[in-house]
Design brief:
The protein is about 75% helix and about 0% strand. It is an all-alpha fold and about 350 residues long. The protein has a domain of about 230 residues: MFS general substrate transporter like domains (Growth Hormone, Chain: A, Up-down Bundle). The protein starts with 5 loop residues before the first helix and ends with a helix.
Length: about 350
Amino acid sequence: MTEPDPQAAATADVALFERPEIYERRWFLLGIMCLTVTMVVMSVSGLNVALPSIQESIAATGTDLQWIVDSYAIVFAGLLLTAGAIGDRFGRKGALQSGLVLFAFGAVIGAVADDVPQIITSRSVMGVGAAFMMPATLSIITAVFAPHERTKAIAIWAGFAGAGGALGPLVVGFLITEWWIFPAYSWTAAFVVNIIAAVLVLIAVSIYSPRSKDAEATPLDPVGSVLSIVGLAALLYGIIEGPVRGWTSTEVMVAFIVAAFGLVGFVMWEIRKEHPMLPMQYFRNVGFSIGSSSYGGTPRSMPVLRRFPWRSRSSWCHHAAQRSVLGTASRRSSRPALSSLLQALR
């Protein structure tokens, strides 16, 4: 019978940020995590500037375009808490790798899609992948940085997350705009660029990212997961369908009722749960509550709420005012992108 290696056991008990090999590459790992979260947030807003091309190519209706954009956000938001809990329980590196594979697979579906259901399926699969990617990046950052550096690292991560929402339209707008030296690519380029980025990040994560998970092996919370998914999905469905079907229509009212029961039930369940997925006592901290609400109210984290002004303006500028797609995107995105990056790097 093989005896356990004392040196290996001692290494396993040492925090990641105290290991020399991890300490030396912590900033490189931060760069990988920032690229990952930027890619996740870019995918929320990037496809907006390609909507006119998609509509012309596959004869999509206004409702079709709405679901092409928002299917990603609904799945992403609905699974975010559950995916984060799974990553903490079974391993953050594995969760990040699985998310990247799903994200790339969804992008492949979108790159070869030729009808609306295929694109919606693509965006939904990418949303599942993104739900595993985003919390895993933050958990890995907190594991590889010592407490005295952790605040700065998380601030940089948050800055890139904010910049991603503004960079998405710029990148996609650049790809589908014709230049004297570069041709204009099809709207499928918005998916191809995600395939390339996801594969590169997956290789980097597989080689350089350490393995980590919740040391306490906290049990999963399936009831809380179902309640959060149902509540968030119903809430976003109501927000999306409200302007189309009418805020007092049966479908929208039922969605909001389901959302209320789901989210209230989630809060009540988490308060009573011994190992909650989202400890409600965190919200007793004034700084945490203000930070969560202020960030949650911005277009970065809830793009669905700002979907209609952005879509109408970009389409109007492109079709009615004869402006380029990239010009429209840059006027809307360059200032917030620069602001977010400067705040992160201070």
